[in-house]
Amino acid sequence: MTGANGSKKVMLAVEHLRAYYVMRYFGTQREVRAVDDISLEVGRNEIYGLAGESSSGKTTFVKTIAAAIRPPLTVVGGSIRYSFLDRDIYRLDRAALSSIRWRHLSYIPQGSMNVLNPVRRVRESFNDFALPHMGLPKQQFSNAVIAHLERLQLKPSVLDAYPHELSGGMRQRVAIALATVCRPDFIIADEPTTALDVVVQKSVLELIREAQREIGSSMIFVTHDMAVHANISDRLGIMYAGRLVEEAPTAEVFRNPKHPYTQHLIASLPRIGDNSPRTALTGAPPSMADPPSGCRFHPRCPLAMDICRELAPEMIAADPHHRVACHAVNPVVRPGGEQMFAKNLGQRSGLVQ
Amino acid sequence: MTEDLLNLDHVTRSYSSGGLFARTSFRAVDDVSFGLDASRPEIFAIIGESGSGKTTLARMILNMVSASAGTIRFRGKALATIRGRRARLDFMRQVQPIFQNPYEAFNPLKRVDRYLYATAHHLARVSSDRMDSACDQALRQVGLSLAEIRGRFPHELSGGQLQRTAIARALISRPALLVADEPVSMVDASLRMSIVYLFKTLRDEFGMSIVYITHDLATAYYISDRIIIMQKGRVVEAGNARTVLDAPQHPYSKLLKSAVLSADSAGAEETTGPGQGREVMSR
Amino acid sequence: MLKIVRDLFRYNREFALGTILILVVFGFAVASFFSPYPPLDSYVVPPDVPPSWAYPFGTNSRGQDVFWQLTLAIRNSLLFGLSVALMSRILSLLIGLVAGYAGGVVDRVLMTINDTFVVIPLFPILVLFFFMMHDQMSWPLLAIAMASLGWPYDARLIRSVALSLRTREFTAMSVFSGMSARQILVEEHLPYVLPIVFSTTLNNMNWSIGLEVTLSVIGFTNIETPTIGTMIYWANQHTAMVAGVWWWIVFPVALVIMAFLGLYLLSVSMNEYIDPRSRLMRMDSKV
What we know:
The complex is a heterotrimer. Chain A is an alpha/beta fold. In chain A, 29% of the residues lie in helices and 24% in strands. The relative contact order of chain A is 0.14. The model of chain A is unreliable at 1-7 and 332-353 (pLDDT under 50). Chain C is elongated, with a radius of gyration of 22 Å.
């Protein structure tokens, strides 16, 4: 799967996306740059993992690409192109959006209660969301749903249950079944296993994997948990303070992380059976209302140089499939021995070819 | 065994639920016994999933919830007999909690330092002129300083800073026992290990015993000396942390361990490819 | 604080209108101190003169200047409303916070008392009170009676907030910092219920002024103290509307409506501003 988007079709292309929270309280305006210039591509049949800590902007990114944009969140610039759409998703009106939801683009939330109506049986949630998009008569639709549940090894009897009668893990499985029943082209999964216990988490991850394979859709999988990424994502993007700092096939990220932040994240993962000391980063993630100048990681970075304080590094392909935004990884050394950086950074940046 | 610091003797806590007629009783903690030795500080991990009763157990050790049956003793004194403000303050001087969510543990409308000063005043009985130095000293033990914290509101500090401030506050009265309920689960990964380390330091350098409650086997393996694994209120396995986690005996412990997602399986991906099943635990 | 008021005034229309109304009403009350005639004296001016330059609101059938009498009446009504509100706030805060924080038996006992007060029919009780006291009836006494009836709804509201505060981790943190129950209630929990206290103060003033007017109009209070209610009472006694002395009734009614509207608008706009959630959102600069 490595290098999935080399020859294969691109399902989602995000370019220079900037989404800010613009707030006005009684005359004072405040801007929070939650997503600041992010570009990435997701190929067909690929699970693209997005990792980042709290307030790294990953949730905002998900909201933006799902076109769940409500004030104060505002898309300031950039584009979000899905293969099944001829324009940016955030430019669609309400009717056009609801016509692509579920059928082309679906969503697995952290809490399944967000999609399952607590006062209606599961069957009715399926009817509400999926029936209008399947274009099938009711009986056939019902058969299709049952067949789909069986493929995911869920008993059809869950359809007659109320959400509160199901355990948390079972509810999340139902939410996954609901998100996949229309065989969407693209699935957005936002921390779908974070609220679950470890034992359940593993089987839910397997279910997501299976469902994704079975319908052959693409997925963006967001979680802060690196161990979960190790077990589900094909490619991995690391976010820090609203920017993408590194992107590579998952195994590559874990084996050969290049950005100092990623290196730290990987190195600090505790493992059973391993007692070697871990290094801890100093400082804390910055406030997005007032981010540091230049590279946003520089106040905590062990490799910080003068340039890092001044110029924000671009995402540059260090390897064909490995992009990093770091001045220490992508320097240009002039004959004089002085470290300089490509004048034409703009030309070198961009997506993996 | 020498003097007990903490001793739980067949402790049970049941809650009843349901209406007037169909009342059902449910045991959140069911017949749990263990003891901590006063002369040998250790990190004692209680591991369980949600609903295992580990949080109820923590609250019972902190005397926030009373036991339905059995006795909890701290330094030989049953917690149920602690009555009156003076006795409670005396207990809190020696046993301090650390909570799960650092953003919730501080009143968002109040400055963070007030809790440090209150603890120094009421529990450590520090005179007002030595207040600042006592707080500063505690904050320096967790890698902060009073200058960084003074006058700040919770939203001005990061989760890691807040959690460390919470730990510093607990240290001011020099307690013998810390009860930490999921202290790192809400803390960002890049800050998590520094807090886990801190517990080790507290044990080794300050001789504090720590009851570390978590669902995370990996950090428990990393720092704890002994562990118990709880399922539905009962202890299913107990013993030396390394021994239990390296080779769990009880089926539930085995299940828990097998469910731990390991970052090492990212390497396995390379060979198997996405089409095949993947190995989840490599060890 | 001043900046907040200025911002509110500029950006919140309800607040601006409410402030203007209340300032006008307040201006009237303050003007009472400059009255050229002793307020309780009658026949100091020619009776039944319609509004004119000399007597802007006219004069009544008892030979009093309606304008100057109105200033004293609104002052008394506002003072009455404020004292009822303050007294009942103290009761509802005390009972609400303690019930919420203590929980268990204390909560159940206090809330049983609370609910008993909720179902007591206010109006008959107050009328009964008047017949019992009769000659000793004065407005401080009425204020105390109404304050002891006006707290239960808000006490329940405060209790529900206190109940949720009790389970917050910072409450446990305060306990383990050695703070006393009084300290936790006053310093940790009170800031969360103050917004409620603030907006209910305004509502409670509205309620008590309204009830006082109702009781006075039908003569169940001390009718010698000029309030908006007793003014209307005396106007009715002199059949002012029939006699064509409309200004005796219209001006007090208009002024009391302004007071109601102003208090209501202020309470609504402040509620929106002081609501702890929006307050936290403003404080919190993070995502």
